[in-house]
Design a protein that fits this description.
The complex is a heterodimer of chains A (about 120) and B (about 110). By secondary structure, chain A is mostly beta strands. Chain A contains no helices and eleven strands. Chain B has no helices and eleven strands. In chain B, strands 2, 4, 5, 9, 10 and 11 form a six-stranded mixed sheet that branches. Chain B has a five-stranded antiparallel sheet with strand order 1-3-8-7-6, with no helix packed on it. The termini of chain B are far apart. The chains are: A mainly beta (about 120), B mainly beta (about 110). At the A-B interface, strand 4, strand 5 and strand 10 of A face strand 4, strand 5, strand 9 and strand 10 of B.
Chain lengths: ~120, ~110
């Protein structure tokens, strides 16, 4: 069984730039979500995608956007980067979007530094 | 929104010792997961436990949903147990709310 994989592992960007992070879901999983983890804090929900559509969003501005592809892989795009966007970005997949018997499985994350 | 609080915030153990980590949540939840985040940032599933007790090797977890808490037990701790332990809860939405975490350090 292939786990959740993310790329790149580390990334350094300049304030104002745009960034794209990528995620491949665990095999058999059709739902993907993204989380932001600032240093010393717990992960915070950004959004979730199911069947290529966003079906849940946390308290993040529109410059955070995403895509899910037919093979269930996903992208997180962040425009107009700010210093506070520096964080570990975690992708997670699950078999289906409901809560029952469908735990989240996380990738190793992408550590983004904005200078 | 729901509040998820974990205690203690920090814990230092001698290798071989046992510990109990607690997670309190402020509202009813549909499910709960415990995670271990290792020093490299990897978030590893430990338990998916809406209620009752589960065991996996040296670790076990108990959730009492009616009283809004969950406990994670670590027995015979090892240095590889070091890291941050998070509980996270599912409410009616599609996302997880994470707790504040417990940072565990196991010293040889």
């Amino acid at each position: 069984e292939t786990g959740v994989t993310q790329s790149p592992t580390h990334l350094i960007k300049t304030r104002g730039q745009q960034v794209t992070l990528r995620c491949s879901s665990q095999s058999g999983h059709n739902t993907v979500s993204w989380y932001q983890q600032a240093l010393g804090q717990g992960p915070q929900f950004i959004f979730q995608y199911y069947r290529e559509e966003e079906n849940g969003r946390g308290n993040f501005p529109p410059r955070f956007s995403g895509l899910q592809f037919p093979n269930y892989s996903s992208e997180l795009n962040v425009n107009a980067l700010e210093l506070d966007d520096s964080a570990l970005y975690l992708c997670a997949s699950r078999q289906r979007p409901g809560q029952y018997n469908s735990p989240l499985h996380f990738g190793n994350g992408t550590r983004l530094t904005v200078t | 929104g729901i509040q998820v609080e974990q205690s203690p915030p920090d814990l230092i153990l001698q290798e071989g010792a046992n510990s109990t980590l607690r997670c309190n949540f402020s509202d009813s939840v549909n499910n709960l997961q415990w995670f271990h985040q290792n020093p490299w940032g990897q978030l590893i599933n430990l338990f998916y436990i809406p209620s009752g007790t589960k065991q996996n090797g040296r670790l076990s977890a108990t959730t009492v949903a009616t009283e809004r808490y969950s406990l994670l037990y670590i027995s015979s701790s090892q240095t590889t147990d070091s890291g941050v332990y998070f509980c996270a809860v599912y409410t009616g939405a599609n996302n997880l709310f994470f707790g504040t975490g417990t940072r565990l350090t196991v010293i040889p």
